[in-house]
Specification:
By secondary structure, this protein is an all-alpha fold. It has one domain. It has two helices and no strands. Helix 1 packs across helix 2. The radius of gyration is 15 Å and the shape is flat. The two termini are 17 Å apart. Keywords: Membrane, Transmembrane, Transmembrane helix. InterPro entries: DUF1145. Pfam families: DUF1145. This is Putative membrane protein.
Length: 61
Amino acid sequence: MKVFWGLGKILMLGFWLVVLVNAAIEAPSPFGVMIDMAGAVLLLTHLLELILFNGSLRGRR
């Protein structure tokens, strides 16, 4: 199970690295927009998760 957690963390780090590099160096036409939209949707999803479920997540360990 630790392998899956580690793999997920590495993949998520890679995704955000691609989004940040795309912000600095624009990717070719259709891909740059898709990368920006995927990053924005994921960021919005996490913000909504914090707003809606912050109380129930606070007590977890």
